[in-house]
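Work Package 3 committed the consortium to producing structural models of liganded targets before the mid-term review. Because experimental data for this complex are still outstanding, the team generated a predictive model from sequence and the ligand definition alone, so that downstream docking and mutagenesis planning could proceed in parallel. The input record is reproduced below exactly as it was submitted to the modelling pipeline, together with the SMILES string for nicotinamide-adenine-dinucleotide.
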Amino acid sequence: MEIKKIGIIMNGVTGRMGTNQHLERSIHAIMQEGGMKINDDLTLMPDPILTGRNENKLKALAAKYGIEKYTTDLQSVLDDSYYKIFFDSSGTQYRKKFVEMAVKAGKAIYCEKPTAITTEEALYLYELCNKAGLKNGVVQDKLWLPGLRKFQMLKEQGFFGKILSIKGDFGYWVYEGHVEDQPVQRPSWNYRSEDGGGMVIDMHCHWRYVIDNLFGEVKSVSCRTATIIDERVNEQGRAYDCTADDTAYATFELANGVHCQFVSSWNTRVRKDDLLTIQVDGTQGSAVVGLRKCLVQPHSVTPKAIWNPDIDSPINYLDAWHEVPDATFYDNAFKIQWEKFIRHVELDEPFRWSLLEGAKGVQLAEISLESHDDKCWKDIPELG
Ligand SMILES: NC(=O)c1ccc[n+]([C@@H]2O[C@H](COP(=O)([O-])OP(=O)(O)OC[C@H]3O[C@@H](n4cnc5c(N)ncnc54)[C@H](O)[C@@H]3O)[C@@H](O)[C@H]2O)c1
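The resulting structure, written out as tokens with the ligand in place, is given here.
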């Protein structure tokens, strides 16, 4: 049995996503499992080196997860041909610089979304990799969440009949930070457009691949955004002006004629099944898709609703939904995609979540903001 080590440069992993999802729950988890067993003769074992600006933070992170290698000298590891993969989860605005460095060094490139703030830059990064003949990918984690996978299964089994409409509701309350015992739970840059923040650039990147993959290609968008909370407190405890949108009301028209509405908000208190719910109504049945769960109501058991606000409803509508059971093991969504990318790099297996797909997400975000500015519907031209 050969255990083949795969050198991976993990850049910007002292951040929230890098630490929790990419290091702890993906790469470290794969290492703890003894690597990725490919067949009886081969196991692929990630061998990460952590890179970033702050040596002490890197040292502490490496120690916590038992990772042997870390450095603040990114160029030195890029120059080392042992490392085949460069991964970036630094702030969005630094992506271009890091990807350019890694492309020059001939690494396979894998990065967080959004890959850039503008479509032009996102497309440039894809083309840079493509021209250099480098394998590339973007994180599209939501595709491997159990709730969304259950939806895919139902769709493939013909549960919905003809899908008629889609309603997505995303969000929760992000503490502003003014109350000591309610500390902020997201980095402050997310609420400053000059630092790459904003609901649309953050979430419409996700909605693009979710909609394209699950429901049909996005053809056009109508979007209104708002900055509902205009002051928050930063990591240093100082108040700052929120310059980015924290709420977006969008309708997407798909090439198959279906309309898809998404409300995204950081200022809403949750009274629903999950932080993201997507209700899909079809001729034969409906589903409410959450992050992990998926509730269904077939047409045959749809209760007869009668409008009468003068009495309490005789029907408990929530009881008319049934949960799709777990029929398999659902691993961490980020880890699943990491394994696919490593197999793509090492074994040449297909990987369709490229930086071009990443650019499509940025494109939808950019055009959504244009729709807001111009107060009109906008078409989404084909990319690439
Ligand atoms: N896939 C998802 O669901 C998801 C969710 C949240 C965030 N993200 C994306 O992940 C990325 C990181 O987000 P986060 O929430 O972890 O943010 P964060 O602020 O917690 O982390 C940012 C990281 O970038 C590093 N960094 C900042 N400035 C830098 C510089 N000048 N040079 C080098 N490194 C620098 C920081 O040290 C930190 O390690 C963003 O692009 C964000 O859009 C993705």
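Reviewers should note the following from the model. The chain has two domains: 2-141+333-352, 143-331+363-374. These observations will guide the Year 2 experiments.
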